[in-house]
Amino acid sequence: MNAPLPPEVLKQHLIDPEICIRCNTCEETCPIDAITHDGTNYVVDPAICNGCMACVPPCPTGSIDNWRLVLKTEAYSVEEQFGWDELPGEKALPDTVSANSASDAEEIVSVVSNGGEDADSASAPTPVFSPSGATIPPWSAAHPYVNLYGHKTPAVATVVGNYRVTDEDTDSDIHHIVLDFGNVPFPVLEGQSIGILPPGTDAQGRPHHARQYSLASPRDGERAGYNNLSLTVKRVTEDHQGQPARGVCSNYLCDLARNDTVQVIGPFGNTFLMPNHAHANLMMICTGTGSAPMRAMTERYRRRIARGTNGRLMLFFGARTQRELPYFGPLMKLPRDFIDINLALSRDAAQPRRYVQDLIRERAADVLTLLQDPNTCIYVCGLKGMETGVLDALRDVVVQSGEDWTILHDVLRREGRLHFETY
């Protein structure tokens, strides 16, 4: 049994800047706003953090799962953490620490040094699920490999394809980029992501941080049987306020030529994974480049059609216009009895604005059938703002049938069957 912490000792929660990919998941997840960031690091304020662990399960890299025993009067400040390039080592606690015994203090140190997942497990609060989706994968999901390559030892991949997948006459410049790893082991699963290290330095002269991209290809490669993968990347030319801004990594990737090499870290992600058991249904809801993991899952199902093990596929795909919808041509060539496709176009002059949540309501009967099937998993990927609309639409479908959405929502989360990946 783990010893209690002495009153003057703090088990301080820290984020490893060498592993963190600055995806903002931890800051969005923290229920008490203990996590913040600047242009360099994500940090935890020791004066606010209560060790609730809500931020740990959603972190795709595990960088959030770090802890140090320190005297409360010597806790690492937010300002100190902002200046770190790597985590500090363990500090030796002074002999005067009034632990129950010397052996107890040693036990505490050994537990914390093993990482937050096991640290002080006897008294640690139960992890808090995110308000929207699951923090565990479906029960039948394959085992993912994560963090095989980091900032100090990235894998090197070669560009073997770079294709624009939206019409040339649109402002939405989205590319399908294929990276080959040759003989370098890089096992991935649908729903995982990788980090790309763009060359150059930022305004402070530091190397650019990695940017995270979801895989657009299935586990056996963009080209089946090859050690490669694909990404769906939108060239960023303006910020969220519409002001001109050149995205460092997106422009780097979209400008790559065949035979260029890229530094890759990861893979990341152990929850947004597809089920593996026969006849599992997938309901996929996405916008724009959020189509990447949906393409990977759909292609996985397409390649095993002959086995007869697939369940139903239902896709809700949103874009401003048809010309700005990535992969529109290949998507329309898929057999209608293989995937149920529903396109929501919000800027089509020929029809009223429609969003994915509108189509969910329009297809209420079929959506409800899938929701009631325990073999159904739901995946949502796209802009952060779509979460509320999708959840409201699913709730409306269930409530209108006379069922309790609160109960079903809780079941979907606990069983790893409702997943959100938004940005």
Automatic annotation (TrEMBL):
Q: Which Gene3D superfamilies match?
A: 3.30.70.20, Nucleotide-binding domain of ferredoxin-NADP reductase (FNR) module (3.40.50.80), Translation factors (2.40.30.10)
Q: Which cofactors?
A: FAD
UniProt key word Cytoplasm: no
Q: Tell me where in this chain the 4Fe-4S ferredoxin-type domain is found.
A: 11-40, 42-69
Any one GO molecular function term? metal ion binding
| EC nos | 1.14.13.208
Binding-site residues, NADP(+):
S214, K234, T289, S346, R347, G382, L383, E421
The record, for NCBIfam families, names: benzo_boxA (TIGR03224)
Q: How does it assemble?
A: Homodimer.
The entry's protein name is Benzoyl-CoA oxygenase component A
Upper lineage = Bacteria, Pseudomonadati, Pseudomonadota, Betaproteobacteria, Burkholderiales
